[in-house]
Structures are given as C-alpha cells and as structure tokens.
Design a protein that fits this description.
- It is a single chain.
- By secondary structure, the chain is an alpha+beta fold.
- It has one domain: Arc Repressor Mutant, subunit A.
- 48% of the residues lie in helices and 14% in strands.
- The strands form 2 sheets. A 3-stranded mixed sheet has the order 4-3-5. Strands 1-2 form a two-stranded antiparallel sheet.
- A hairpin with a 5-residue loop joins strand 3 and strand 4.
- Helix 3 packs across helix 5 and helix 4 packs across helix 5.
- The longest helix is centred in the first third of the chain and has 18 residues.
- 25% of the residues are buried.
C-alpha cells in the first residue's frame, strides 16, 4: 500500500473505510500475535485513525474522559504503550504525537512526510533508504537504535 496516495493525493479518500481497514488489521495482528486488544486500546486506536493528523496523548485523554467519565492519564498512556509495542501506531517525535501505522515494516523502518500547513502525515515505504542506512551504519560501525525518519514540508493540496 502506498499511503502517500490516499493521504496527500486523493481528495476522494474514503476515510471511514480507511479506519475500518486499520481496525481490522489491528484485530487480525493481535489475534496472530496472541495480544489482547481491549475495548480501551481499540478505542484509542480508532481515535488515532480519526484523521491522518497526529494525535496528542492529552487530546486522546480528553476524548476518553468525556466518553467514559474521567479516565485517568495512565489509562491512555498504557493503551498507547501497548499500541506502540504491538506496532499498531507510531510516535511522531517532532510533534510529540501518535499516528496509526499504515504499512508493513518487515523489511524496514517507518518514514513520514509531515505537512507543515495541514498537519497531515503520510507513512511511506522506501526500502532503498533502509538499505542506505544499513550500509552506512555498518560502514561506520554504528549501532542504530531508532531509525524513524520524519520529513516536513508542504503537501500538494496545501501547495495548490
């Protein structure tokens, strides 16, 4: 799947289908990995997928508190930790926020295009970038721990 297409290029993106597909992928992944996708974890994931804009933990907490009557911060943070560990969401470090995982990472690390105007984020797959990073870290004897790449700019819709 090329997530740049629906997020940045396609004005007719069916976001309801996008959310449903993400939740179905998450449920399948959890079943296969023998992980427990509780109601609160699923709801946090659903809230994160509500848009292609990163979600801040505080905003998630506010929504969950309104829905469930005063949820405590650890509830949301534990759900986010689970979703991160399960590979169902990513943390956008530069924004201190979370975005749903749209790609398979069997052979690479996440890379994100972040629009400075509309705040939408697209996750991209670029195996050649992963190869270049592996090659250069190996050449320099460097043990990379975290390899998320965040590229900020302006999407085509905002530039138009």
């Amino acid at each position: 799947m090329n997530s740049v297409e629906p997020v940045f290029a396609n004005c007719n993106h069916n976001h309801a289908a996008c959310i449903q597909a993400a939740l179905e992928r998450a449920e399948k992944h959890c079943r296969e990995q023998d992980l427990r996708l509780t109601a609160i974890r699923r709801r946090i994931l659903e809230l994160i997928w509500t848009s292609h804009r990163p979600s801040k933990a505080y905003d998630l907490l506010q929504t969950i508190s309104q829905e469930r009557g005063g949820a405590a911060p650890p509830t949301v943070y534990r759900a986010l930790d689970f979703l991160l560990d399960a590979g169902l969401v990513h943390r956008i470090e530069s924004l201190n926020a979370f975005i749903g995982c749209a790609e398979e990472h069997a052979h690479g690390q996440p890379k994100f295009l972040i629009c400075n105007e509309c705040a939408r984020v697209a996750e991209i797959v670029a195996p050649e970038v992963d190869s270049a990073i592996r090659r250069e870290t190996s050449r320099l004897g460097f043990a990379a721990i975290q390899k998320t790449i965040e590229i900020s700019g302006i999407c085509n819709q905002c530039a138009a």
